[in-house]
Specification:
Order of helices and strands: HEEEH
Radius of gyration: 13 Å
Number of helices: 2
Strand content: 25-35%
Shape: globular
Structural class: alpha+beta
């Protein structure tokens, strides 16, 4: 999981640098919920284009490869249209 999360953080930084239309936002809350919110937002009006909220528990069903693929799609040149 740590390896995938690090890749997501690097892709989030890359997204902001390479895209004029969108940016990434990652929030983690370390309380009892241990929730991670990963979003792609419009730079124009800050609306949410994609948003994923997951609970980081031992039995979490998140597919990290799917989140990585989503970021790679946007970093590669997709716009919010």
């Amino acid at each position: 999981m740590e390896e995938k999360l690090l890749k997501i953080l690097k892709l989030a930084d890359s997204l902001n640098e390479k895209q004029d239309e969108v940016f990434a936002e990652i929030e983690y809350c370390a309380n009892n919920s241990k929730s991670l919110v990963i979003s792609i937002r419009s730079k124009k009006d800050f609306t949410y284009i994609e948003k994923c909220e997951v609970r980081l528990t031992n039995d979490s069903l998140i597919k990290w490869d799917n989140v990585v693929e989503l970021f790679e799609h946007y970093v590669g040149g997709a716009s919010d249209e």
